[in-house]
Design brief:
The strands form four sheets. The protein has a six-stranded mixed beta sheet, sandwiched between helices. A four-stranded mixed beta sheet has the order 8-11-7-12. By secondary structure, the chain is of the alpha+beta class. It has 20 helices and 14 strands. The longest helix is centred in the first third of the chain and has 23 residues, at 2-24. Helix 2 (40-54) packs antiparallel against helix 15 (333-343) and helix 11 (227-241) packs across helix 19.
Length: 423
C-alpha cells in the first residue's frame, strides 16, 4: 500500500509538472517579409531555431508575406482582429501603423540604454516624435563599391569628391587586351528610367545641394530647375557623353545589368548598397576580397540614403515581453554579423557594426555613410513617380535624346510641380 501511494504521488507529480510546462508554452506569430526571400529566409529561420532552442517555452511561428503585399495584409488582419505578435514594419509605414493603433510602445519594453545601442541615424528614421516605432533589424545605406585591386594597380588613392571620381574613372577606362577597343569602363551607371536609376541619381543630385522633392514650411517643393540641379545633371550625363567612362547603352542598364557588369570585370565602380556585394560574388566568387566600399563622393556635401527593415510588436499581442526578447536576440552581434555575411545587409547595432567584419575596408564605406543619411520624402504618395519616371526621363533625354540640360530640367520641374498641385 505504501509503495502504491509513492507511485501514485510520483505519477501525479509528473502529470502536474507536465501541465505546468504546457501552460507556460507560448507561440509568437511573426509576420515576416524576409522569411520568404533567399538567402534571407534560411538565415532568419536559423535565428528562430536557435532562439527556440535557448527558450524552449517560446515557439516562433512565421507568417511569410511578400513585401509588396505587406501593407495591405496588415490593414486586413488589423480589421479582422487577427494581428500577429510581431510584424515587419518600415519607416515608410510607421506613421500609418501608429495611426491605426496597431503598434505596441517599444520604449516601455526596451531600456533607454538598449535603444541607444542602435545607430543614431537609424533611430532618426524609425522613431516618430522621438519615440521608437520600428525595431530596426537591418539597414542598407547607399555608398560606392569599387575594385580595390584595380585602384591599387592604377595608383588611385581615396576618392573624396566628384572631380576625383572622374579622374579615377578615366584612368580605369581602358583597352585591357590590346586590340584597340575599350573593354573596361570606370563606372557602372544605372541609367534606366525606373526607381533603380532615379533613386541612385537622387543621391548624386542631393550631393550637389539640390533636392528632387523636399518639404519646406509645410509645402512640398522641388529644386530640379535650380543651378545646383543642372550642374548635377550635366555632371552625370557627361560621364557618358563626354568622358566616355560608362559602357555603351547606359539607358538600358538597371540594377541587375550593373551587377553583371561589375561581376564580369567590365566596370570598376558602382553607386549602390552593401547587399550588392553578395549579388556580385554570387556571380563571380573570385572577386571576394577585391571589392571595397566608400561613401558617395562629395559635391557640396556628402549624402546617403538609408533603407531600413524592421519589426513592430502588435498592440494586441498578449506576449509583448517575449516578443521583445526575440527581437533583441536576432540583432545581437553574432546574429548581426551572420546576417551581414550571408545577405550583405548591414546590422543595426553599433556594437555589431564596430566588429572587424563590418569595420574593415569591404563594408567601411557603408558604415561611414551612416553619418550622412538624409531621409527620403517617402510620406509623399507621389514620390515614387519622381524617382521611377521623371528623373530618368530627364537624364535619358539629355544623354540620348539631344535635349539640353536646361530644357530637360525645366520640363522635369514642371511635371513635379503638377504632381505637387494634384496631391
Amino acid at each position: 500500500m505504501k509503495l502504491l501511494k509513492q507511485i501514485s504521488t510520483a505519477v501525479f507529480g509528473i502529470f502536474l509538472s507536465a501541465n505546468i510546462v504546457y501552460a507556460e508554452q507560448i507561440t509568437l506569430k511573426v509576420m515576416s517579409t524576409t522569411i520568404v526571400e533567399k538567402p534571407e529566409g534560411e538565415v532568419e529561420q536559423k535565428f528562430a531555431d536557435e532562439f527556440m532552442k535557448r527558450n524552449p517555452d517560446i515557439k516562433i511561428e512565421f507568417i511569410g508575406t511578400p513585401m509588396n503585399s505587406l501593407y495591405a495584409k496588415l490593414q486586413t488582419v488589423a480589421i479582422g482582429g487577427e494581428l500577429p505578435d510581431i510584424f515587419t514594419n518600415t519607416p515608410e509605414f510607421a506613421a500609418k501603423s501608429r495611426e491605426m493603433g496597431i503598434t505596441a510602445d517599444l520604449e516601455s519594453l526596451l531600456e533607454k540604454s538598449y535603444i541607444d545601442g542602435f545607430y543614431p541615424s537609424i533611430l532618426d528614421q524609425t522613431s516618430i516624435d522621438g519615440k521608437l516605432e520600428v525595431f530596426p533589424f537591418f539597414t542598407i545605406p547607399m555608398g560606392m563599391l569599387y575594385r580595390a585591386d584595380w585602384f591599387k594597380e592604377e595608383g588611385i588613392e581615396k576618392i573624396e569628391n566628384w572631380e576625383d571620381f572622374v579622374t579615377a574613372a578615366r584612368k580605369l577606362t581602358k583597352d585591357t587586351d590590346g586590340d584597340g577597343k575599350v573593354d573596361r569602363w570606370g563606372f557602372a551607371m544605372v541609367g534606366s528610367r525606373n526607381g533603380s536609376g532615379g533613386g541612385r541619381f537622387a543621391q548624386i543630385l542631393r550631393s550637389f545641394g539640390a533636392y528632387e522633392l523636399a518639404k519646406r514650411n509645410d509645402d512640398w517643393q522641388t529644386d530640379i530647375d535650380s543651378k545646383e540641379s543642372r550642374d548635377a545633371f550635366k555632371f552625370f550625363t557627361e560621364l557618358y557623353t563626354k568622358h566616355k567612362v560608362v559602357p555603351p547603352g547606359p539607358t538600358e542598364v538597371s540594377y541587375g545589368e550593373a551587377i553583371s557588369l561589375m561581376a564580369s570585370g567590365k566596370t570598376a565602380m558602382m553607386i549602390t548598397g552593401p547587399h550588392s556585394i553578395g549579388a556580385i560574388l554570387a556571380q563571380n566568387p573570385e572577386l571576394a576580397g577585391k571589392i571595397y566600399s566608400d561613401v558617395i563622393p562629395k559635391g557640396s556635401k556628402n549624402v546617403s540614403n538609408l533603407s531600413i527593415g524592421g519589426f513592430s510588436i502588435s498592440s494586441t499581442s498578449e506576449h509583448k515581453d517575449a516578443a521583445a526578447k526575440y527581437l533583441k536576440f536576432i540583432v545581437e552581434t553574432e546574429q548581426g554579423l551572420e546576417w551581414n555575411r550571408v545577405t550583405g545587409r548591414m546590422p543595426s547595432r553599433i556594437e555589431a557594426g564596430s566588429q572587424p567584419q563590418i569595420s574593415g575596408p569591404i563594408y567601411e564605406g557603408f558604415v561611414n555613410a551612416l553619418e550622412y543619411v538624409e531621409p527620403l520624402p517617402t510620406s509623399a504618395s507621389f514620390y515614387s513617380q519622381i524617382t521611377g519616371d521623371i528623373l530618368g526621363e530627364a537624364y535619358q533625354s539629355i544623354m540620348v535624346g539631344g535635349v539640353s540640360v536646361e530644357e530637360a530640367t525645366d520640363y522635369a520641374a514642371e511635371r513635379i510641380r503638377e504632381l505637387i498641385d494634384e496631391n
